[in-house]
């Protein structure tokens, strides 16, 4: 059974997720930790629970979701996977990171790509990849049908949606991703978002003002 541990990192209050199961194998989703204090929180939990991270998987490549990728990748010598369309967004981060107060940003190397229909495995568990662009052009989400949850990144928030005014963003595309991909999931699926707390598909269908 997959356990989900969330951490809130960096000034953007980004949610990093650590998923692990009874085997001790784990995947790290969107490591946004920056600096020794934040990375030590992640490492400390991993070590105290005797976990073995096997890969880093990102929903997208905006700065707040990639700040810790290089450090985590080096620490555990594991691959970093992303959608190929978001590679240019990752490459752009180092040019603007100092302007946001992150002069020590270390650009990670991408080791592989994920796309709609890809399956991410760890231990006895698996996650299905769905393509949900709009907030970012190569945005993906990770779905567990067995445990009825989505690690959704910055697509759908509790009574809100991801912003679309950043490079590569598009409002109509984002709304289409939510309605045609996320809202086709059953109402009881929990959505773990890239910011703020979790919500459910059913709650957002009824209460999200952007999706009436």
Would you write up a description of this structure?
This protein has 212 residues and is an alpha/beta fold. 25% of the residues lie in helices and 29% in strands. The chain has a single domain, classed as Metallo-beta-lactamase, Chain A (4-Layer Sandwich), CATH 3.60.15.10. It has helices at residues 36-48, 63-66, 69-76, 87-96, 171-180, 201-207, and strands at residues 3-9, 14-20, 25-29, 52-57, 80-82, 112-113, 119-122, 125-131, 140-144, 149-153, 156-157, 160-161, 190-193, 199-200. The strands form three sheets. It has a six-stranded mixed sheet with strand order 1-2-3-4-5-6, covered by helices on one side. Strands 7-8-9-10-13-14 form a six-stranded mixed sheet. The longest helix is centred in the N-terminal third of the chain and has 13 residues, at 36-48.
CATH class: Alpha Beta
Number of strand segments: 14
Tell me the distance between the termini. 35 Å
Q: State the major sheet.
A: 6 strands, mixed
CATH superfamily: Ribonuclease Z/Hydroxyacylglutathione hydrolase-like
Number of domains: 1
Mean pLDDT score, rounded? 97
Looking at this protein, list some descriptive labels.
212 residues; alpha/beta; Metallo-beta-lactamase, Chain A; six-stranded mixed sheet; 25% helix; 29% strand
């Amino acid at each position: 059974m997959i356990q989900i541990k969330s951490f809130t990192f960096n000034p953007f209050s980004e949610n990093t997720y650590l998923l692990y199961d009874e085997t001790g194998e784990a995947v790290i989703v969107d490591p946004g930790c920056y600096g020794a204090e934040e990375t030590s929180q992640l490492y400390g939990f991993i070590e105290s629970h005797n976990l073995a991270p096997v890969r880093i998987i990102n929903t997208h490549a905006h700065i707040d979701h990639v700040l810790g990728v290089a450090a985590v990748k080096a620490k555990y010598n594991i691959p970093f996977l992303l959608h190929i369309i978001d590679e240019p967004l990752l490459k752009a981060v180092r040019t603007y990171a100092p302007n946001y107060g992150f002069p020590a940003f270390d650009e990670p190397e991408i080791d592989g790509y994920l796309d709609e229909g890809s399956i991410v495995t760890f231990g006895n568990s698996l996650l299905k990849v769905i393509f949900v662009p709009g907030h970012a052009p190569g945005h993906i989400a990770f779905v567990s049908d067995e445990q009825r949850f989505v690690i959704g990144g910055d697509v759908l928030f509790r009574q809100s949606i991801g912003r679309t005014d950043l490079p590569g963003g598009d409002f109509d595309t984002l709304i289409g991703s939510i309605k045609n991909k996320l809202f086709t999931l059953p109402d009881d699926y929990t959505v773990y978002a890239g910011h703020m707390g979790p919500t459910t598909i059913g709650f957002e269908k009824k209460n999200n003002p952007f999706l009436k």
